[in-house]
Specification:
By secondary structure, this protein is mainly alpha-helical. The chain has 30 helices and twelve strands. Belongs to the chloride channel (TC 2.A.49) family.
């Protein structure tokens, strides 16, 4: 079916292409913005470069040392990425901690201390009231010398909203003015870039700086978003910066993407304190090409990043994350039923969120709403702050909320037995007190609020992660279910389901575990992660014992969500933005052929081609000016249409420009030759221009009767930009990556033009 699959690896034209590229041409071998890279060519160029270095290393000691430095450059880049990503994550965590507390009060002894740090240094604070100390004062105490009463509450309420609006306004203004690419999660774009798409500036230094600063501002504002997704973008910006310092990566887009895959792993490593989960996340969720070498380097980058964050110790608990917990009660088989129910809830929530959020984002793109991003952010922030403040569970930061819900004693207003002398770790199940019932109502209201407000928050023109809000929704639902099961077990311990494992006075049910399982279920329902999700969650808790409940919830949520649609939130946003992303997970089962998809179709203008020895410089320049194609097939003649090779548009432009500047006698009437040896020309004729060196002599070809299922597979696995369609060596047409995506959309009854980059 593929006439030159055997020769594809050799890339006959690549050696000649490298001769051309070795000349000091500016921008040769690079790609234009919003274009796809040629994976086969990048692989071939790296092989040629490596062969060249290996041969030179035998010539002298200095060349041998240079070859060693080249071999170690990858590990050096990983080390630098890990150090910078870990440092930035630590600084972000410390800044968020301080600025979140700044909305409620200030530390008089040192204004740069957060509430917790302020009371750590106080001699008056006790363990029971460790968040109360004279050094920390709420704004009402500082401004009107009142801590209680209606006036103090209203003043604190007003200042809470004011700080939130200030932080959000600063963030959206910085993004809008200095780095428009710093908005959003960044993971859909990272996935697209790793698949071979070029988005200039998306991983630039300005984006890195603005995203880091604005991430602190938006998380501190109290909006329903997290920093975990954007931290992947920040880490990839670090990877892009350091890879530009080494020619091995800066001059090869394929090699650069190996670095970015490892950087994504480092980003998740510092976001969750989960190095192994970070590597698996990069492999399962974002990477397109992930060779074994990249796996090792990802592991090293994630390790260094985690070690750096641990050294900074931003949470002061010697842990990598705020919500590290340890449970002391095993789970029982009967609890699998509520765990699976939480999985069903997670799948349904994921489906609801994706559909509503995509509908809202589409409305934002297609109506006047999208023209006022600052007003939208201010409005959503104001609504969030006004509704969040009265409820103590939504007033605090989402990470602190999750931490309390995960904690075994996060809601501890139970009716105690005065004769109980057990240690805290083995507190038996007890009847719930009035505080627990009040907390249940507040949590139920918080759940509804988080579900609704997150739909409108994710996708605004500010950095916005989805991991933490999704986990919060699941943790709230899980904690409510956990307390319900706990009280059921206490009051009905003689029921058959409780009789075997829940004796009166025993510590049977751990509500915090239900919160953790619910968080995993909801995050899985939204992102469709499975293996990496479970590993991240157990790295968060440090307990291998709870892998089975997490697996049950993650798999159930994925099954339920997949029943309503295969796309996760990131794939949905990729399609919404029209990025040319060919998902490996998508299945193509239609019985169409290459001839049904190739261009030109019947009634269309014939394919624009170059001939090997009959076109002048002016002809080629006119063809380039009148078309916007990325390249042109080269044929023997327009009559025979026997395929010779493929010439890239950018290489043609640069070669002709260079020839006009450097070679005497090259004029508009000069004939361009793609043959091995140009024929002798009369003395009075213009000097010919030989461009065989830029010709790819082994372009990928398929026959017109190749099934599209095979063509789609080839595009996926080889990362092709285009594929030529032939019959018996005669050129019939061309299939580009966008043609494949259009055809797949058409077969799925979607708008074929929806895949166009927007």
């Amino acid at each position: 079916m593929c006439t030159n699959m055997v020769n594809a690896g050799n890339m006959n034209g690549s050696g000649n292409l490298m001769d051309f590229l070795d000349e000091p041409f500016p921008d040769v071998g690079t790609y234009e913005d919003f274009h796809t890279i040629d994976w086969l060519r990048e692989k071939s160029r790296d092989t040629d470069r490596h062969r060249k270095i290996t041969n030179k290393s035998k010539e002298s000691i200095w060349e041998f040392i240079k070859s060693l430095l080249d071999a170690w450059s990858g590990w050096v880049v990983m080390l630098l990425i890990g150090l910078l990503a870990g440092t930035l994550a630590g600084v972000i965590d410390l800044a968020v901690d301080w600025m979140t507390d700044l909305k409620e009060g200030v530390c008089l002894s040192a204004f740069w201390y957060s509430h917790e740090q302020c009371c750590w240094t106080s001699n008056e604070a006790t363990f029971e009231d460790r968040d109360k100390c004279p050094q920390w004062q709420k704004w009402s105490e500082l401004l009107v010398n009142k801590s209680e009463g209606a006036s103090a509450y209203i003043l604190n309420y007003f200042l809470y909203i004011l700080w939130a609006l200030l932080f959000a306004f600063l963030a959206v203004s910085l993004v809008r003015v200095f780095a428009p690419y710093a908005c959003g999660s960044g993971i859909p774009e990272i996935k697209t870039i790793l698949s071979g798409f070029i988005i200039r500036g998306y991983l630039g230094k300005w984006t890195l700086l603005i995203k880091t600063v604005t991430l602190v501002l938006v998380v501190s504002s109290g909006l329903s978003l997290g920093k975990e997704g954007p931290l992947v973008h920040v880490a990839c910006c670090c990877g892009n910066f350091f890879s530009s310092l080494f020619s091995k990566y800066s001059k090869n887009e394929g090699k650069r993407r190996e670095v970015l895959s490892a950087a994504a792993a480092a980003g998740v490593s510092v976001a969750f304190g989960a190095p192994i989960g970070g590597v698996l996340f990069s492999l399962e969720e974002v990477s397109y090409y992930f060779p074994l070498k990249t796996l090792w380097r990802s592991f090293f980058a994630a390790l260094v990043a985690a070690f750096t964050l641990r050294s900074i110790n931003p949470f002061g608990n010697s842990r990598l994350v705020l919500f590290y917990v340890e449970y002391h009660t095993p789970w029982y088989m009967a609890e699998l039923f509520p765990f699976i129910l939480l999985g069903v809830f997670g799948g349904l929530w994921g489906t609801l969120f994706i559909r509503c959020n995509i509908a809202w984002c589409r409305r934002r793109k297609t109506t006047r709403l999208g023209k006022y991003p600052v007003l939208e952010v201010i409005a959503v922030t104001a609504i969030t702050a006004i509704i969040a403040y009265p409820n103590p569970y939504t007033r605090r930061s989402t990470s602190e909320l999750i931490s309390e819900l995960f904690n075994d004693c996060g809601l501890c207003d139970y009716i105690n037995d005065p004769n109980m002398t057990r240690p805290v770790d083995d507190i038996p199940d007890r009847p719930a007190g009035i505080g627990v019932y009040m907390a249940m109502w507040q949590l139920a209201l918080a759940l509804v609020f988080k579900i609704i407000i997150t739909i409108f928050t994710f996708g605004m023109k500010i950095p916005s992660g989805l991991f933490i809000p999704s986990m919060a929704v699941g943790a709230i639902a899980g904690r409510i279910v956990g307390i319900g099961v706990e009280q059921l077990a206490y009051h009905h311990h003689d029921w058959i389901i409780f009789r075997n494992w829940c004796r009166p006075g025993a510590d049977c049910v751990t509500p915090g575990l239900y919160a953790m399982v619910g968080a995993a279920a909801c995050l899985g329902g939204v992102t469709r992660m499975t293996v990496s999700l479970v590993v991240i969650m157990f790295e968060l808790t440090g307990g291998l014992e709870y892998i089975v409940p997490l697996m049950a919830a993650a798999v159930t949520s994925k099954w339920v969500a997949d029943a309503f649609g295969k796309e996760g939130i990131y794939e949905a946003h990729i399609h919404l933005n029209g990025y040319p992303f060919l998902d490996v997970k998508d299945e193509f089962t239609h019985r169409t052929l290459a001839t049904d998809v190739m261009r030109p179709r019947r009634g269309e203008a014939p394919l624009s081609v170059l001939t090997q020895d009959s076109m002048t410089v002016e002809d080629v320049e006119t063809l380039i000016k009148e078309t916007d194609y990325n390249g042109f097939p080269v044929v023997v003649s327009k009559d025979s249409e026997r395929l010779i090779g493929f010439a890239q548009r950018r290489e043609l432009i640069l070669a002709i420009k260079n020839a006009r500047q450097r070679q005497d006698g090259v004029v508009s009437n000069s004939v361009i030759y793609f043959t091995e040896e140009p024929p002798e020309v009369p003395a009075n004729s213009p000097h010919p221009l030989k461009l065989r060196r830029i010709l790819n002599l082994s372009p990928f070809t398929v026959t017109d009767h190749t099934p599209m299922e095979t063509v789609v597979d080839i595009f996926r696995k080889l990362g092709l930009r285009q594929c030529l369609v032939t019959r018996s060596g005669r050129l019939l047409g061309i299939i580009t990556k966008k043609d494949v995506l259009r055809h797949m959309a058409q077969m799925a009854n979607q708008d074929p033009e929806s895949i166009m980059f927007n």
